[in-house]
Amino acid sequence: MTYKEIDIDDGAEIYLPLGALLIMLHVVVTALTFIDIDASHKYHDFAGVQGWVLFFIKLFIWVYFIIKL
Question: In total, how many domains does the chain have?
Fold first, then answer.
């Protein structure tokens, strides 16, 4: 998809729910950082489950774009 292919007027029923879904996913992943906020083994905000979730999301997006090229 390129910028020229996006028709905001006719695509609002697609892009608005998709944007809302992405915002909800981001909020859930961000909320996962508070599960073990005071853990003694935690060296940064994305250690543990939330780090693995973000890693697999980014890996999936990377593989998707590599296959599409």
Answer: 1
